[in-house]
User: Fold this.
Amino acid sequence: MNNAMQQAAPSTIPTVKLLIDGQFVESVSKEWRDVVNPATQEVLARVPFATSDEINAIVASAKTAFKTWRKTPIGVRARIFLKYQQLIRENMQELAALLTAEQGKTLADAEGDIFRGLEVVEHAANIGNLQMGEIANNVANGVDTYTLQQGLGVCAGITPFNFPAMIPLWMFPMAIACGNTFVLKPSEQDPMVTMRLVELALEAGIPPGVLNVVHGGEAIVNAICDHPDIKAISFVGSTKVGTHVYQRATLTGKRVQCMMGAKNHAIVLPDANKEQTLNNIAGAAFGAAGQRCMALPVTVLVGAANDWIPDFIAKAKTLKINGGAEAGTDVGPVISCAARERVESFIVSGIESGAKLELDGRNPDVPGYKDGNFVGPTIFSGVKPGMKIYDLEIFGPVLCIVSVATLDEAIEFINDNPNGNGTAIFTQSGAAARRFQEEIDVGQIGINVPIPVPVPLFSFSGSRASKLGDLGPYGKQVILFYTQTKTITARWFEDGAVTGGVNTTISLK
Ligand code: NAD
Assistant:
């Protein structure tokens, strides 16, 4: 039990509810945790670690609801998500304020978090065009073959703290639009905006039992992995937990996709547009206090681009560190005191391992927020593999600069890193960009785009150590993830048709 964990829920602080069969229910759990504003340490709410009876009741409700939901017409499903996207738009500012209060990121970035999820809701509203089977006419005499894409049953989603709007919205809208029912397990660190999005989903018309919410940590996640009535799990979070979830849940025959940790590199060639490059890398390295799986915490400077190190430092110094709710803030607090201490310990380790600390963001002065979990932009140069600051995901506003001589060396360097979530190149050379795109072994590539998270016309396609499972969340791939393909081979006899006799072969005649 950590510092923020409590034995029971005192009455003065709001409690985060479970959602079971369309009802928001107070957990009977004796184990609770505080939801804390990372800029002020104010306790905003308490979240329960649900009991095994509660998760069993939730899955039972989702299983029952599937019986009718799976037969719900496409148009009915689509219209719920049309209404849902409208409700999210109408409540954008309230949602963003809630997200900033519990997560820490700036209000503008909180709106971005919601908006990137909203795009998936819009995509779910298009389900009529997405969930279509195929047909081949006359595969044999008078025989047609066609496929149906049908919902799997009860699916579950387990989400991280860093995108408490976008990532839940990657999951339940597409799963439900495909005809499944859903159990969502939000991050226990910031579940409040997720719950508000869930309330709006019910208001949009999602019926009781189709969307359910359980709260908790390791025990509930393990119960989800083991439950025989859950057919598929989408997980987003750290590599350690995601690997555990993948191994445990696939043992019970579930379909599982795990989007996990990262260490994303940007290559800067000397011909790049300098001001654009500095702005883009500073935004991607330090925005959201570095707590994005698609952040750019490593910059590989090629040849003469190494002269730009002072410019990176100058650019980082222009960023304003403040409470996320304050106008003009560029860098808010990290999620918790423990996260701040962890980032600070990485900075110590960077110094000890011989990297050059070019800019030290520890203990910034943030007037009005003396208790906040702030770490300012921090830059190391001379970073090499074998240093902890390079080998591990820091998940804070720390930029590691690596120096190489050529583009080929830079590509080889990135391919030697086990992670494969995202990468970017900054150059004005089409030929260099194309070589990069062809040779780099990373699933999501930006060309002069620092955070190349695809819109839902495509799928999130992280690779290698950043991903387990073949199919990504949202986009075309997720339709296959959340459906089972049935293939039907059919022949209809004309009345009075005579048979060609007994066919003892496997050939269709
Ligand atoms: P986390 O792995 O600590 O938590 C993710 C979920 O797992 C939470 O719901 C949490 O309650 C649960 N959990 C935590 N410990 C557990 C345990 N021991 N057993 C079972 N379940 C457990 O991740 P986080 O700190 O919330 O999020 C940050 C991580 O997520 C980073 O590594 C980041 O790169 C990654 N991330 C990846 C993507 C992606 O798309 N690849 C997107 C966002 C975040």
Notes: The pocket of nicotinamide-adenine-dinucleotide is lined by residues 158-163, 185, 187-188, 217-218, 221, 236-238, 241, 244, 259-262, 293, 393, 395, 421, 460, 462, 466 (CB under 6 Å). The mean pLDDT is 96. Residues 52-69 form the longest helix (18 residues).
